[in-house]
User: Fold these one by one.
Assistant:
Number 1:
Amino acid sequence: MLSAAGAALLILLLLPAVLMGKDRVLSGIRAYVPQMPEKAEEDPDRWTFSADKVSAQHTSEYIEATGNCTLAMGGNLIRADFARYYRETGWVLLRGNVRARWEGDFLEADEAEFDLNNMLGWLKNGRAFMAKSHVYVDSERIERKHGGMYSFENARVTRCSGENPAWSVTSARGDVTLDGKVRLYHTAFRVKNLPVAYLPYASLPATGERQSGFLFPEIGSSSRLGFNVNAAYYWAVSDEMDVTVSEYFMSKRGLMHGLELRHTEDENSRGLWKGDWLVDNTRATKEADEDDSFDDDGLTRPNRNRWWVRGKYDGWLFSPEWKTLVDLDLVSDQNYLREFNHGRSGFEASRDEFVDKFGRDIDDADSEVRTSSVYMSRSWDRVGVAGKIEYNQNLAYRNGNGDDSKNPSVHSLPELDAFAWKDSIPGTPLEFEGSAKFDHFVRRYGDAGQRLDLRPAISLPLASKFVTVIPRARVFATFYNTTKHEDTGKRTISRFNVENNSTEGGKQSRIGYETGVSAFSEVDRVYQLDGALDATRENAGKSEWTSLRHSVIPRVDYNYRHSMGDQSKLPYYDSRDRLEPEDLVTYSLTNVFTRKRQSVKLRPGGDDGPQAFMKTDYLDFATVRFEQSYDRNEAQRDDRRDKYERRPFSDFLAEVVVRPDDYVDVVMRTWWSPYIQKITQHEGTVRVHNDIGEVWAGYDLRAEVDEYKRLREDEMSIGKIGGSLRVAKNVTLGVEYRRDFEASEDLEKTVRMTFEGECYDVYLHYSRTPDDSRYGISFDILKF
């Protein structure tokens, strides 16, 4: 943040404190003469004074001292070659090598004068250093005025040490108040002694707290966007709210305007809202005009007026018990998020911030449907209620790509939910749970109306020493009131389920049920290891694994849902409206390895010094799971037997998760087909990391599959590797490489370098993808 360059000026606020305490006049005077004690009695609220030579009389108007003049109060200290103190006015004049230490901060000056009674004064040819935030301020004259305001002339502010700092901000004049507000006039930002930016006026922060100011711009170049600069101004409106205004210049596309609002009313509320708008220099009235990576989607982008509005909110309404969540995501066209996906205003930065601060993601950049919603909920011990309003923006019907009057997108306005948490039924061994969902569906084209879906369920836990069995049953009761019916022709529910839209309209209902049973057990064995430690001070900081527990958890789940016949006469809004029959057995075997570790720690002791004690902790450091399903309906299927043979067994899943300590993570999931005798899917990553860097590698595979129950036409084989390494004390290098082995194409090559200076950080990056090459540089001179 460029505004951070002025941060050090707050140190000037501490100047009078160096010369004053609760009693603002000198409360004790002594000279280093033989008849006086070498040390005065300590008093943290009184200034004491010493010097090689003191000249004072009872009738004198002032006291003069020369040679090693020292003023002290508590841990604060001031030294000078010459000092004159005026008794009546409390005025102190200091000359020659003025040095001061005040609460960890340091001051230097040729001359200084202060009225300790009225807290007024000035510093001539002075330097202030704030140790906590590592900020230096040099000025010809600093004056303290009434109201706690300081003014200065010809000042230089920097966080770099030395006479020729790497960067600094100079100002012809300015002022700073006790709250840290700094105003500078006729300022220049300098690299070494070279001025690189001028502003007639700047308001800069003087502390590490949130304060208004200009953010340092992001500078880069891209084959898609051209040379680009993203500059922003940060406005700290209040302790609970701030606003960032940005201007993003792209030589090939134009000037994008951005606005960001953040607010936090209390510990239970937070909001983040962003909006960007661009009048694009380019258009794509036909697919041939578009970026090559956007071909074959059947959509064009003829609009120049482009924008993206997004935001999230976590809070409450009426009372903190009524939790409220808001998700906003609206965009001008289907290509916006794919084109503007990097940098401060890009898709990736917004997505990462939403996930980090709210724990909720947004739709992928290439999704043609953007979802916005408002959700409210409240829970009690046994029940809960919720309500939602959801709007789905379908980008395939924007900018002339589709007839908006034929847009089939469904919106819930509103959705109301009630839940009964699983709980025992008094007087019985049974447990009950259930849900009720009411939706009022609105759409421009297609069926619309209301739906009430009830799903009560009971279960009977039966536990013994060796096994737990839980039979269960659930009822589906769905009631429809279709207020608008339009014959949209055939609709695809699943691959081989294409039905005519024969909805009759009016009131309809559907009743169904499902049953099932789950059975699981757990056996374990504990292995004692040789590792053992004595709780002694010599062993402090050491740790050993003392035992290993291996748990084996077999589990079988069976679920049966009866066939509900032809449901094509019912409206279709989402997957709840079509309940397919199910007769499925799933069996799994999970192995969990848990280690017990004992560590020797120290705690404060008595006269014998720190005392050693043993601390024990446990960690599930490895999990190995195997799972497969058997579909009894598929085993009896007669449909399309001429092309698709029966394959009732699902792919065999093997999953391995290893996290033995804080330095390594291994996650592997592999699916193997017993019919085609090969791996159909794999997801795996390995990460090793410590204080100086990390290395990670991964491989994702999806094979082509054509079966009755599933179709996957495109194969995927993507490898990725990357890492970072601190190659020097202040230099970190990072690389990332992704390759599509199926297409024999590099997906991404990225190189990053971070240089951490004493008073600034520099970030360099270069990235190349099939559709774009970009590089950039950014700086951080805040570092508070």
Number 2:
Amino acid sequence: MKKNTAAWARDLARKHLETSLPRRWAHTQGVARQARILAPLLGNQADFVEAAAWLHDIGYAPDLVDTGFHPLDGARYLRDTHLVDNHLCRLVAHHSCALVEARERGVDRTLTTEFGAIAPHLSDSLLFCDMTTSPDGTQLTAKERLNEILARYGTEHVVSRSIRISSINIINTVERIEETLNGQSPR
């Protein structure tokens, strides 16, 4: 990966989200802010995680939608158009328990064939950033974020079903990272 990957990722995300999806852009900015909070824990990987934070929702951009599953669409765009590092593409493809939703949508085989069956290194960091940021980019607890998602999508939506399945993992991951940030040993 090149130096200043986060700056490049920010500019690319801005290009695709700022005008067409301003609320998604606000969320993305908040997720990147959360990534910068993790910098002391991430050391030389901080820029990489911040880049993933900027790019995690790029697949929502109207000009990039292909399958309608934003983690897959975003990762494919990054891989095919920008020849982005495989690890970064995999982080976007697998962000925030995406494989669970991929199963619910019937695209899990496609996701795992193209981007691996196991979430890559640093996925927990990206999950923390995404699941502690509201749609408007403000910080909130993981439980508040999960409740917001369920309320926004409604009970039977594929996203809601996926979030319910993933909720324990999401909460445990966020709590573990928060403990580490607060100087406590993770459970």
